[in-house]
UniProtKB/TrEMBL annotation:
Keyword rRNA processing: no
Keywords: DNA-binding, Phosphoprotein
A GO molecular-function annotation: DNA binding
Domain HTH luxR-type: 133-198
Top-level taxon of the source organism: Bacteria
SUPFAM superfamilies: C-terminal effector domain of the bipartite response regulators, CheY-like
Pfam families (alphabetical): GerE, Response_reg
GO biological process: phosphorelay signal transduction system; regulation of DNA-templated transcription
This protein's name: Response regulator transcription factor
Tagged with keyword Phosphoprotein: yes
Amino acid sequence: MIRVVLAEDQAMVRGALSALIGLEDDIEVVDAVADGEAAWRAVQAHAPDLLVTDIEMPGLTGLELAQRIQRHGLATRVVIVTTFARAGYLRRALEAGVTGYLLKDAPAEQLADALRRVHGGGRAIDPELALEAWGDVDPLNERERQVLRLAGDGLSAGDIAARLNLSQGTVRNYLSEAIGKLGVSNRIEAYRLARQKGLL
């Protein structure tokens, strides 16, 4: 039996995915939760074979969950099921140790097949997205991404500096680098473009 923890913040989608997975004789949903922190607690409590998670959730994102599982050396394998068909997200997911990346508009029968493949040690990645991911280079480093994300949340350079224990000059340098790398003229445009490409 393949034991699954499901993390999805939209109740209707969570219920539908849980019901869909529950139709399979060899796959069992041991817990279904609505946010990232609850997902982390469920992974620790149940030690499931698979965590099936969305990317954007309250608390911890799916990518942060995958990174935490990887950092703690847990055996749970991560499958992301999302609406985000963006190469940047897929690339960051693979770096975080994710072995499955499926889009929510994929045919329902693909989900169970993907879960079995990942459980068996393979990968299940949306093929069109995989092709796009390797043709598109991520220009940002992790610190630039962090600073840009906070700038997009409306924080000033001073607020970002205090949050990240950096000087204001260093924060301005990171923002300037990100703006230059993305080929835009200000931090708002940089944030929007980075979000659109899935770099944040």
